[in-house]
Automatic annotation (TrEMBL):
UniProt topology in membrane: Single-pass type I membrane protein
Organism of provenance: Cinchona calisaya
Molecular function as annotated in GO: ATP binding; protein serine/threonine kinase activity
Protein name: Receptor-like serine/threonine-protein kinase
Localization per record: Membrane
Enzymatic class: transferase
Amino acid sequence: MSHHFLIFFFIVLSFSNLEFTKSQHPKQQIISSFSISNSSWTPTKNQILLSPNSTFAAGFLPLPSLPNLYTFSVWYYGITKNHITVVWTANDNFPVNDSASLVIKPSGELTLSSSPSGRNLWPSGPVSKATNTTKLILEENGNLVFGDWESFAYPTNTILPNQNITGTVLATKNGKFQFLNCKRLVYKGSPEYYWNTDNAFQKLDDKGKISQENFATFISSDFGDQKPRRLNLDEDGNLRLYSYDQSLDQWTTVWQAMFNLCMIKGKCGANAICIYETSNSSTSCECPPGFRKNSSDSCERKTPLTDLKNSKFFRLDYVNFTGGSNSLLIQNLRLSDCQAKCLAEYNCLGFQFKYDGNNICILLLERLDYGFWSPGYETAMFLKVDNSETDENSEFIGMTTLMETACPIRIKLPLPPEESRATTRNILIISTVFAAELISGVLFFWAFLKKYIKYRDMARTFGLEVMPAGGPKRFSYTELRDATKDFADFIGKGGFGDVYKGTLSDGRVVAVKSLKNVTGGDAGFWAELTIIARMHHLNLVRLWGFCTEKGKRLLVYEYVPNGSLDKFLFQKHWINSDLVESPDMEQEMGERKPILDWNMRYRIALGVARAIAYLHEECLEWVLHCDIKPENILLGDDFCPKVSDFGLAKLKKKEDIMSKSRIRGTRGYLAPEWVRPEPITSKSDVYSFGLVLLEIVAGKRNFDHKNSNVDSAEFFFPSWAFDKVFKEMNVDDILDQRIKHSYDSHAHFDMVNRMVKTAMWCLQDRAENRPTMGKVAKMLEGTVEITEPKKPTLFFLGHDDE
Ligand SMILES: *[C@@H]1O[C@H](CO)[C@@H](O)[C@H](O)[C@H]1NC(C)=O
Ligand SMILES: *[C@@H]1O[C@H](CO)[C@@H](O)[C@H](O)[C@H]1NC(C)=O
Ligand SMILES: *[C@@H]1O[C@H](CO)[C@@H](O)[C@H](O)[C@H]1NC(C)=O
Ligand SMILES: *[C@@H]1O[C@H](CO)[C@@H](O)[C@H](O)[C@H]1NC(C)=O
Ligand SMILES: *[C@@H]1O[C@H](CO)[C@@H](O)[C@H](O)[C@H]1NC(C)=O
Ligand SMILES: *[C@@H]1O[C@H](CO)[C@@H](O)[C@H](O)[C@H]1NC(C)=O
Ligand SMILES: *[C@@H]1O[C@H](CO)[C@@H](O)[C@H](O)[C@H]1NC(C)=O
Ligand SMILES: *[C@@H]1O[C@H](CO)[C@@H](O)[C@H](O)[C@H]1NC(C)=O
């Protein structure tokens, strides 16, 4: 269940319910117009009307499921080799057979009838001006035109570039979903929308921009290139923009309205809870405890509620139901009172309770609709069930414990002592024991508060705040100059530019990164940032906005107070490290950082793995990190890891990253394929993560081991560590010397062992042998078994002095 941790959004690679295999059309007759002088057009004539440059075609298309029934449709003709992508249909709900015909009557009226005497199925409109000389033609943009009539005015579920959408409605074929007023997505029986934009859509262009009212826009992830595109209200209720990728010969999603498909109303039926499967972007409908399935998407009670006195409540974590209009919100009610109220009402099926200052109690009456699971919900759901029900094996109960590793409790770590080695050791043991005591003591206290705080924090960090239309906020240069007091507070040098601390006028503390040498135009830059800003994950640094003005490119990130992981891991090696670039070196040298204990290290490893898995899996491969190293792992005030600089690699070329890394001396975090004629894929990130994982365990840079006990030019720490773990079965030698003595094989063995073994899998020489990042996270979690991998042998660490 832990993948639900990465709940919410993201994206089907290619959603294509409109496509079906092109059937064989022997001797297809191609026409350029259809007029009154032609006799009737029947399906058996096997003719198609092409646009001038053959981008689109129109004609009778057999249904994929029932090939002797037809619809009169327009489809993309010239592009996909294997599929027909329908973009408009005259008679979606009334497919016709061989006896149908399209005719232009002597009166000038265009009609489509299922039989000579059948009624007209053509979407009619103002045909008054049509004369017996009017022709049916297909324009190059896909618009089917007959006099004043045009198919663009009667869209079905697709909008094409340059189509005026104002005043039109899109609907899915199954009739369940609509895009109303070019603004909101609604589920038929529901008065409420499930997606809404303040500024109605006006037009899509072939570069991937959706213009809206008030000059707002949505921009596709591949904005800028002129390609075949289409905006589709898909059968699953999501509105997606697709562009045609010629090299793959398929449509790819480049923008979409809904990220978490479970938030689409009507996904699941009565009483069911929708769960979004992030690994394959699918949804499933599950029953709450006390219920069983009565159809694929709805549930019924096992034991009907009969007696008011004979019922109790199950608390479901992260579940939200709405009773539709049948819910009753009461402010300032204690939990017990809320519960009593629901118990007293026969038609109350459960309630939601919000643990904030307002103690909001929402009674759900009569129906439990649109249930879904999302760790972003601030409220707890209490479901009324018969007393005899048990909550055994319900996945919705006790889920909070799964979140445990996400972010730790607020504790202070012990500072590393300065004394001699012996005392160091004692103090370390004492302080670690003390820390352990502290943690367990604190845990009890937090058991009370945690639930409440977690709900609140998670709602924030899981990013349920909706992105404003048009993407991240655009700041003015003056705003950022004021926020940073004219870039006075320099806090570091990242891979892509200098970083300054600042405070926005609304009080938010931010890190402002001034990008250097970024290629691409303003629009492309914006498009990339829109994607980066959409990445919401507890373990990713949030991008709040940007500024492109006066030739400057600035990014505004959340400020992460504790700095980067390297400062905690490699304190002893400050002088040797390549971080001497920092002008604050002297100051930071003097500043001792606490030593991270094993639990902390494990949480950091897991958090980073999850964040990168999220980038890889949930966001397609749009966002490879390409620069995973301790410097890019920032630590929040709870030592919650936050990965920074993700997505920026897309703004640079591969060679730039390569040479840049060498110059900068980011030694040894690149996968072997960087120097081989092989593509850089998400598996390259897995390799880098493996190296970081080893360093987290060893507390030392991998290349620094060269100078230690085993001294050889051929010494490759991962290979050596491999033998220790899999051959000698002795992890101890790998562990960070500074906290080695606090290592308790009983308490820590499993955790540390998993970290090292996972690292070995990540460090496989060949990319295809490495697990995906999602699998890596599972290995760390301990939810999959870790077998013995091949020994990593590639020596690709210390090339800095070449
Ligand atoms: C209809 O007639 C026009 C001119 O007579 C011709 O160019 C066109 O191909 C015909 N179309 C069909 C469907 O026969
Ligand atoms: C068709 O293609 C030609 C050559 O590429 C181009 O010049 C012409 O403008 C196109 N016509 C339309 C209607 O797009
Ligand atoms: C075709 O459809 C028409 C009208 O729906 C019907 O009258 C006719 O029997 C059908 N013909 C065949 C061959 O199924
Ligand atoms: C069009 O219709 C008018 C009368 O409705 C008729 O006089 C004329 O000849 C027709 N033209 C053609 C091309 O059929
Ligand atoms: C788009 O259509 C609407 C309604 O039909 C119309 O008012 C508007 O002028 C059209 N816009 C353009 C640019 O054609
Ligand atoms: C998605 O993954 C889940 C769990 O791995 C599986 O149960 C489900 O069948 C998958 N769905 C699809 C559509 O592949
Ligand atoms: C399943 O049970 C629910 C709730 O009792 C009911 O609304 C729904 O119609 C049932 N569905 C089927 C297919 O029986
Ligand atoms: C439950 O979901 C609905 C619809 O998405 C939302 O309006 C409501 O605020 C949610 N309830 C809570 C308590 O978060």
